[in-house]
């Protein structure tokens, strides 16, 4: 029987939102958390209308040797697929949306490949990250193309006043090793200079990425190595006026299987992001932010010693944004101008060696009137695929300081990738952008010591680009605008503190389906959930994480089912001096055998230990 969110959501949403759970009257949640991504400007968390979550520095520190994707998969609304270990190709699904339907930013700089449309999650160094903000739902009205499922913004480590040094070293199962070090600080005075610089190396011997049933199976271990460095420098020219630069460089070498060949088949992936910025307080109520940024995504694949066994695809994005933010008696008006140029250079032929320019203008207005909150945004993007106008409106009403309900609507689009437009024998230059139309209801309730939230969403996608055979305009297969899809679901989350125990739980009931075929979208489950608990006593913190996912299908035709799974992770941190700490972590403690992609291995029970100095 088909699971339909629309028929089953009303009762759980009502019960979750307005029932009276028995919860202890403990300390209130930490106030005044500030988020940036949901509105492109700093905003108190209790004034943000879109569904948003933040992954803190502490959560990232507890992840050990895990990847960015491993940290994300513990959050509500997120699933991942990986073709092997942490260095392997990785996809991140946000509310059922594809990886290429999610915008990924590093310190405000957009990253990703113009040929695939997706970010190289496996190349992003976890040790460089301070915190992560995730905004769910369509944000094309603020960020342009591809923000159908949401936006993930990664913030690297920044300067924090007094000069300080930090470092860590760790090792674990599969020959994993990890080292990182960093320094940050700031000078005082009217012309203060802040700085931050960190570097990291990690590698592992790994395990075989494939299983015997795969046509690419090779029983050898597939390891990886990653080197990264990132930094930021900012100078205060005068009070309210700041100029600076930031960068991140990461290089990943990852082995993979391509059959019984003795050649060391591997990928070499580089991601870089650079930006220079100028922030000015032009008037007491008028701020200006000007940024010039560049990001590179380079992928080299090597399958044999012959020259024909090597291929290279490099993509580059140059982006210029000028944002004006005006405070109008408590309301906020933003006006944004953007220019982005994408370039591709491929060794596979000249068909992909092209560039395209997107020019954008956007405006947003945030209104606060007593118990009423209103956000409006509108954007116009123009590129080789024509002009696209997107908009969003969100309304929130505070019944009390503890209970708030929200409703929002928004449109979005995804630009066709270079592969979908120009790849020989596959792309069609007539392909149009995919389009999304989302409606959402949410409720948030904070009671002493606890916070509960529920969001129901219904995101209908049209002109979906899929591979079809036969192709309407030529023989063989091709990418073509033909499908419709529905991303519908209910996300629930809760946090509380009880008898010194911090508890967090989330559950997703969703129905990501292809409306053209009636099938469940590949590699997305209808139910997944997580539970985390931690307890601190003296210098020790003890924690456990439980992740559960229902069954999925590995293919669009729903012929190959992947079983559901549950994972138990355990960790402890011992801070034996104010500056020194020891992390011990055990992942997949019950040694669950499961697949995220058919015939690809996942890690068995594995441990990791790290010694750390200073503030992470």
Description:
This protein is mainly β. The longest helix is centred in the first third of the chain and has 9 residues, at 10-18. The model is unreliable at 1-31 (pLDDT under 50).
Please summarize what this structure is.
The chain has 6 helices and 35 strands.
Name some characteristics of this structure:
single chain; Maltoporin, Chain A; receptor; mainly beta; Beta-barrel_TonB; 22-stranded antiparallel barrel; 616 residues; ion transport; Plug_dom_sf
CATH class, named: Mainly Beta
Overall SS class: mainly beta
Mean pLDDT: 91
Number of DSSP helical runs? 6
**Strand element count:** 35
* Model regions low in confidence, pLDDT < 50 over at least 5 residues: 1-31
Shape: globular
In the CATH hierarchy, the architecture is: Beta Barrel
Q: Sheet bearing the most strands, described?
A: 22 strands, antiparallel, barrel
Strand coverage percent: over 45%
What is the alpha-carbon Rg in Å?
24 Å
Percent range for helical residues? under 10%
Domain TonB-dependent receptor plug: 51-151
Subcellular location: Cell outer membrane
Signal peptide: 1-27
Keywords: Cell outer membrane, Ion transport, Membrane, Receptor, Signal, TonB box, Transmembrane, Transmembrane beta strand, Transport
């Amino acid at each position: 029987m088909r699971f339909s969110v629309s028929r089953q959501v009303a009762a759980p949403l009502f019960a979750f939102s307005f029932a009276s759970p028995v919860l202890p009257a403990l300390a209130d949640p930490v106030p005044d958390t500030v988020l940036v991504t949901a509105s492109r400007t700093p905003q108190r968390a209790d004034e943000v209308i879109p569904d948003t979550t933040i992954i803190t520095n502490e959560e990232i520190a507890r992840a050990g040797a895990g990847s960015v994707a491993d940290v994300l998969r513990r959050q509500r609304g997120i699933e991942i697929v990986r073709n092997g270990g942490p260095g392997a190709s990785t996809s991140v699904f946000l509310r059922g949306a594809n990886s290429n339907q999610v915008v990924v930013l590093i310190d405000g700089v957009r990253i990703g490949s113009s040929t695939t449309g997706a970010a190289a999650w496996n190349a992003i160094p976890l040790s460089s990250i301070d915190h992560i903000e995730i905004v769910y739902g369509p944000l094309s009205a603020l960020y342009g193309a591809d923000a159908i499922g949401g936006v993930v913004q990664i913030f690297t480590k920044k300067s924090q006043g007094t000069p300080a040094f930090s470092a860590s070293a760790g090792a674990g199962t599969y020959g994993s090793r990890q080292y990182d070090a960093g320094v940050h600080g700031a000078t005082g005075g009217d012309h203060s200079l802040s700085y931050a610089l960190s570097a990291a190396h990690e590698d592992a011997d790994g395990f075989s990425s494939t299983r015997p049933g795969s046509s690419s199976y090779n029983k050898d271990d597939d390891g990886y190595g990653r080197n990264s460095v990132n930094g930021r420098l900012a100078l205060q020219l005068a009070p309210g006026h700041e100029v600076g630069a930031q960068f991140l460089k990461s290089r990943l070498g990852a082995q993979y299987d391509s059959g019984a060949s003795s050649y060391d088949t591997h990928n070499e992936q580089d991601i870089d992001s650079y930006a220079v910025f100028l922030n000015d307080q032009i008037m007491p109520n008028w701020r200006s932010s000007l940024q010039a940024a560049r990001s590179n995504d380079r992928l080299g694949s090597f399958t044999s010693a012959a020259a024909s066994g090597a291929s290279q695809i490099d993509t580059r994005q140059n982006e210029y944004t000028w944002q004006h933010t005006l405070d109008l008696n408590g309301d906020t008006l933003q006006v944004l101008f953007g220019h982005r140029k994408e370039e591709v250079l491929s060794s596979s032929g000249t068909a992909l060696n092209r560039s395209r320019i997107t020019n954008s203008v956007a405006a947003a207005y945030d209104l606060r009137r007593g118990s009423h909150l209103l956000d409006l945004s509108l954007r116009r993007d123009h590129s080789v695929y024509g002009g696209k106008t997107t908009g969003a409106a969100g309304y929130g009403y505070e019944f009390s300081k503890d209970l708030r309900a929200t409703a929002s609507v928004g449109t979005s689009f995804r630009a066709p990738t270079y592969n979908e437009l120009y790849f020989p024998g596959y792309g069609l230059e007539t392909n149009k952008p995919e389009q999304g139309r989302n409606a959402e209801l949410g409720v948030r309730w904070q009671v002493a010591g606890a916070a509960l939230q529920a969001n129901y969403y219904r995101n209908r996608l049209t002109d979906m680009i899929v591979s079809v055979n036969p192709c309407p305009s030529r023989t063989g297969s091709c990418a073509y605008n033909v499908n419709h899809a529905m991303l519908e679901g209910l996300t629930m989350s809760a946090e509380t503190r009880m008898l010194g125990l911090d508890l967090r739980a989330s559950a997703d009931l969703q129905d990501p389906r292809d409306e053209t075929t009636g099938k469940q979208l590949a590699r997305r489950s209808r139910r997944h959930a997580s539970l985390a608990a931690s307890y601190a006593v003296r210098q020790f913190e003890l924690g456990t994480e439980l992740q559960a996912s229902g069954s999925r299908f590995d293919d669009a035709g729903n012929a190959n089912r992947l079983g559901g799974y549950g994972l138990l992770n355990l960790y402890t941190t011992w801070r034996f001096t104010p500056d020194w700490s020891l992390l011990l972590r055990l992942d997949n403690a019950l040694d669950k055998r499961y697949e995220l992609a058919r015939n690809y291995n996942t890690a068995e029970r594995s441990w990791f230990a790290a010694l750390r100095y200073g503030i992470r």
